[in-house]
Specification:
CATH topology of the largest domain: OB fold (Dihydrolipoamide Acetyltransferase, E2P)
Largest sheet: 5 strands, antiparallel
CATH superfamily of the largest domain: Nucleic acid-binding proteins
CATH architecture of the largest domain: Beta Barrel
Helix content: 25-40%
Distance between the termini: 45 Å
Bound molecules: zinc ion
Order of helices and strands: HEHEEEEHEEEEHHHHHHHHHHEHEEHEH
Number of strands: 13
Strand order of the largest sheet: 5-4-3-6-7
Oligomer: single chain
Shape: globular
């Protein structure tokens, strides 16, 4: 047990040492070390109630805004970005920072050539905190949001604080964003399909929607800048390897508004296959835990839209078969089993291990309790291993875990 003063002193000491450490830290985490209390406190949606972060103030530096440009994301939202004179913020060179939206730019009154304070907190995109007063300097004209989308020229619309390009997939910037999202690690994980490649595919008219990815040949990919026989072959293989996606990942990859990874998983569990989900009504969707009216409306609207239906049909035509998913299915090999990982896993990514366990009916917990069935110990296991021994929980190594989940090497 520590008193608040002790914790506070530790926080202050560590903050002073932070620049001397070999790694980047953004604060401390305070955890309840009494396991009974932990169980009593339980979990919030994504995080335990028995642990809380106490962050350090973000790192800040002063630099100059060279220009303000507007970028268009996959959902069509226009975001003003400050292009900065590169500056080192806590060991990372920052050359662009988000200004969020038009109101924010106006509120902070940021204009090109202004001196500004820039902050970076953890992995998030750096942001412009405020303008630094420079008495006597003549400033440029205030920033105004363009009336037309910088990528496709469509007239933009305002929705609350947001400015949106309504052109959907006919806007190349949105299409590039969608392709990148579809290929991203937690979606279908197509290695080698990054922003630059997606941009080229769209600019050359080779891909008009995500379904077109599957008709690309090695020869097509060879025409792209920066591709040789080997890399083109690898990208082709990577794309073809995603033809049997799991339902939850596929749903996330589609980029349905308001459907993040967690929601995609909940929907996949409830409906089990794409056809059932596509037929669901708003009322029915809302019977799913954690799904409220806004998400339900968004899902129904997505599957009703003509363009999306066409893309889904084209995906099917190009050989994409979304795999049905079963949940609560009795008889799954790891049904009701709880796993905790500790140490670094050499043979799996954690995300992969988690998916595998869940697909087999088990679940992953973040801390060891009497209810834990197995602790999987990787290299350099932490205190969880001691917890397991103390509570008499079975400890297995990665090899044993691999056999248990039946993964072929
Ligand atoms: Zn546009």
């Amino acid at each position: 047990m520590f008193t608040f003063e002790e914790i506070s002193r530790y926080h202050a000491d560590l903050y002073e040492q932070r620049d001397d450490l070999d790694f980047e830290i953004d604060g401390i985490v305070i955890k309840v070390d009494d396991y009974r209390l932990r169980e009593e406190l339980g979990m919030r949606e994504r995080s335990p109630r028995w642990a809380m972060a106490w962050k350090f103030p973000p790192r800040e530096e002063i630099t100059v805004v060279e220009d303000i440009v507007v970028s268009v994301g996959r959902t069509g939202v226009l975001t003003p970005l400050a292009l900065l004179q590169p500056v080192d913020v806590g060991g990372v060179t920052v050359s662009r920072a988000t200004l969020h939206n038009e109101d924010e730019v106006r509120r902070k009154d940021i204009r090109p050539k202004d001196r500004v304070r820039v902050a970076r907190a953890g992995d998030v995109i750096p942001e412009v905190v405020e303008r630094v007063e420079e008495p006597g300097r003549k400033r440029s004209a205030p920033f105004v949001m363009p009336e037309n989308c910088p990528a496709c020229g469509a007239k933009v619309v305002k929705e609350g604080a947001y400015t949106i390009c309504p052109a959907g997939l006919s806007c190349p910037a949105q299409l590039v964003g969608r392709i990148c999202h579809y290929a991203s690690r937690n979606a279908l994980n197509i290695e080698g399909l990054g922003r630059e490649t997606a941009k080229q595919l769209v600019e050359r008219g080779m891909v008009r929607n995500v379904a077109d990815l599957y008709s690309l040949t090695v020869e097509d990919l060879l025409t792209l800048e920066g591709f040789a026989r080997k890399s083109a072959g690898a990208l082709y293989d990577a794309i073809q390897a995603t033809k049997k996606p799991r339902l939850d990942r596929f749903l996330y990859a589609l980029g349905i508004p308001l459907v993040g990874e967690r929601t995609a998983r909940l929907l996949a569990r409830r409906y089990g296959n794409l056809a059932a989900l596509r037929q669901a009504t708003e009322e029915d969707l809302m019977q799913t835990p954690e799904i409220g009216p806004e998400i339900a409306r968004s899902v129904v609207a997505f599957f009703r839209e003509k363009e999306n239906r066409e893309v889904l049909a084209a995906l099917e035509k190009n050989g994409v078969e979304v795999q049905p998913q079963r949940d609560n299915a009795v008889g799954l090999p790891l049904q009701g089993k709880t796993f905790v990982f500790t140490g670094s896993l050499q043979r799996f990514r954690r995300e992969e291990a988690k998916e595998r366990v869940e697909a087999l009916g088990g679940r992953i917990a973040s801390s060891v309790s009497k209810k834990t069935d197995y602790v999987v110990a990787g290299a350099d296991p932490g205190g969880k291993l001691d917890d397991a021994r103390r509570l008499g929980v079975q400890v297995i190594n990665e090899e044993e875990f691999e056999r248990m989940i039946g993964r072929s090497p």
